[in-house]
Amino acid sequence: MVGHMTEKEKMINGEYYLASDEQLVKEREYAKDLCFELNNIKSSDKKKRLQIIKKLFGKAGENVWIEPSFYCDYGYNISVGDNFYSNHNLIILDVNKVTIGENVLIGPNAGIYTAGHPIDYANRNRQLEYGKPIIIGNDVWIGGNAVILPGVTIGDNTVIGSGSVVTRDIPPNVVAVGNPCKVIRNV
Question: Second label for 148, Cα 20 to 30 Å away, from 18, 95, 168, 181?
């Protein structure tokens, strides 16, 4: 059959898909098992922590550090560059691609959410979901308790203030804060 996409293909393409699909359930369980393992390794066992991150993520550069606890949906949709640091309690809902550049710092309790649900209750009641990619450039600092929503791009050398809710693209070389997050000055 030509044209028939799997639920995973629909998910990656940003179309409505069923998260209850058997293949997707198995892939989420695999990722959550790796997250559990990562979150329960001694901080001093840096080699083992990095091995799990490289096994979990689609791409992980050099000098990547994620403080526990960390949670994601699939892992394989996450790409991080060199010199990535995340403080405690990062959640990445990676039903679509999350691309994070080099020299990125993320504060505690941050969320990066590619996942969304239909506004229309009939589609929501059918348990349909969708995802839009998120891109975070190089040399970005994201403050604690910030939330990055589906489809957002954050430009290079930008600072996102603590507690911000990023609902739309943020250009490079700025400081942006608030809910919704807005540019307050250039860097």
Answer: 18
